[in-house]
Write a structure and sequence with these properties.
Number of strands: 10
Order of helices and strands: HHHHHHHHHHEEEEHEEEEEE
Structural class: alpha+beta
Shape: elongated
Strand content: 15-25%
Amino acid sequence: MQGHRLLIHTPMTEQRTNSTSNSAGLFTLALRLVVGWTYFSAFWRRVALENKLDPEVAGYIGEKFNHFLPHALGIKGLIEHLVSHPDQLWWAMVAFTIIEGVVGLLLMLGFFTRAMSVATFGLAMGILLGSGWIGTTCLDEWQIGILGVASGFTLFLTGSAVYSLDHWMMQRGLPVTRKRWFLWLGSGPIEAFTTRWKPVVFGGAMAIFFLTLFTNQVFHGGVWGTLHNKSVRPQLAIEAARMDNTGLTFTVQRVEGADVYGSFLIGMALLDDNGTPMLELTGDELATFPADRIHNHYVAKVRPGTHSMVLPLGAKADIHWADPRFNSLQGGGYTLLLTDISGATWKAEVAG
């Protein structure tokens, strides 16, 4: 009938469809193996090569997670809740590590490939939104996250072919492979992709491309305007600086700079309205600053170091600078000055 198209499924049509699906799954073999190892290796590093799940050791993954906090996009509240509750954070890090290990291993094996590709998409989205702004010399975490999102989408479309457990199960006609849902969770030709694949691919690709441009602009100004990298120089935010006759109390948070390198305070001073230092602490004095006068909010901790006070990325603390000389200071107009070893300084007005 004119105006209608009759689609006839023949053995030849089915054979061609299966051949196309097998070719696509075969062509993405390298992608499946590399992406799978990317996630499995995270589990391998934290559990087999080193113990990065111990909160008491250097390199604890929970502290690394704390580094994401200052500029996370959309999930900042979740991150802040976890890093404020160390017990919950530990369980979350254990679960996250196990999920990465399982997803990565099964993706390499090609077992329930499409389900693992959806999990890959979710893990990559978490990396992108949480740490896409981090990267000292390149846009490291953003690239890892956005490429993981694109890879997860691609592997969902193709599934896996030969050199996969999905293919092995289908070749042997295992009952599970005859279930309709297996095509959506495992591998094999999905009719919606074979008959209407162009809108599916185009729509998904455009959505991911928009996500690419959006996050590149938000995190780095990479589409228009001025490029910026929040991982190059340390930046501190000072809040609620208040002085009384017992001392000076303020809240400080490290919000920018390299995640693998702290900010090192070598100077803390109280300036009068002429900029003259009234009270000062040197680097050596900050290195011996009483730990009980530092109240940390998160698992990344502000602490006295060898020659300075160390502020890891994402760390936030209330600091009480006690000194009997504050009792002799009168009036207002005072300013708190913090000095980093790099020469950077930060100021905040002090309330009386």
